[in-house]
Amino acid sequence: MSFGVMGGFMQPQGHAQVLIRLADYGQNPQAAIDGPRWRVDAGLNVNLEPGFAEEVYDELRRRGHQLKIAGPPEEFYGRGQAAYKLDDGYFAASDGRADGQAVGF
What we know:
- The protein is α+β, with helices and mostly antiparallel strands and 105 residues long.
- The chain has a single domain, classed as Glutamine Phosphoribosylpyrophosphate, subunit 1, domain 1 (4-Layer Sandwich).
- The chain is 27% helix and 29% strand.
- Strands 1-5-6 form a three-stranded antiparallel sheet. The protein has a three-stranded mixed sheet with strand order 2-3-4.
- The chain starts with a strand and ends in an 11-residue tail after the last strand.
């Protein structure tokens, strides 16, 4: 599979999050790219997209993190695309946080 998440300092964080969803949770590339993301900023500041379970927010606060919950998915959490080779074709995915689409012919 070839994939990438662009977004400056969010890039390595986004790559890790997509890979975790693929490898540890068995999600397909589109689901892995579409999932809510978090972004670690300076110190204990963590920005999160909506969509995580309330227990996640509660546990992060318990551990001393300062949380900021974003509005709808935004480009500040990276934008990704993927192309995955299957035995009988390809599976392509494109992030809804930006313009683009996965198209084959």
